[in-house]
Amino acid sequence: MMASVMNSVLLQASLEKIGVETRVQTALMIQEVAEPYVRRRAIRHLEKGRVVIFGGIGAGIGNPLFTTDTAAALRASEINADVVLKGIVGDDEYGCPPRSNSNASFEHISFRELAARGFSRMDMTAVTCCEENNIPVVIFNILEPGNISRAICGDQIGTLVDQSGRIT
């Protein structure tokens, strides 16, 4: 969990370096580097146009068996988020392999199709939580320069997973 908080603080520093106002919230009590998670405060930050990064949220949400993906999906549903951004290392079809042996990556796929394929770089509990709350997921290569900014700005990068999900 501490590594997650450290990554969150590094992401915050990177975003603020390019002028994006950001807050880090965590379930851990480390007020020197992050605010405690308070749902209403997170929503207020978002209303003010700030990016809110939830760090150290796996076991810190009181459920030690939750992955960070599931905890992020839960937080997203709590604050009525528009989207969950899932940054992964690498670009191997963004975690959504095609059924054939082609190397084509998906730009858009449904939650149901993702589940039917049986493999994703995001755990299926998180995918199901996002599906049930109608929160799209963008899975993208976090190491590609500029991808985080593009994801935040809503540009098409990686794979969009949502209810309609036409495979393209």
From TrEMBL:
Give UniProt keywords alphabetically: Kinase, Pyrimidine biosynthesis, Transferase
One GO BP on record is: UDP biosynthetic process
Q: Under which EC number(s) is this enzyme classified?
A: 2.7.4.22
Q: What class of enzyme is it?
A: transferase
Iron-sulfur as a keyword of this entry, yes or no, is no
In which pathway is this protein known to take part?
A: Pyrimidine metabolism; CTP biosynthesis via de novo pathway; UDP from UMP (UMPK route): step 1/1
Q: Where in the numbering of this chain does the Aspartate/glutamate/uridylate kinase domain appear?
A: 2-141
Does the keyword section mention Protein biosynthesis?
Answer: no
- In which domain of life is the source organism classified? Eukaryota
> What are the recorded GO MF terms, alphabetically?
UMP kinase activity
Q: State the family named in the UniProt similarity comment for this chain.
A: Belongs to the UMP kinase family.
What is the official name of this protein in its record? UMP kinase
Organism whose genome encodes this protein: Dichanthelium oligosanthes
Organism taxonomic ancestry:
Eukaryota, Viridiplantae, Streptophyta, Embryophyta, Tracheophyta
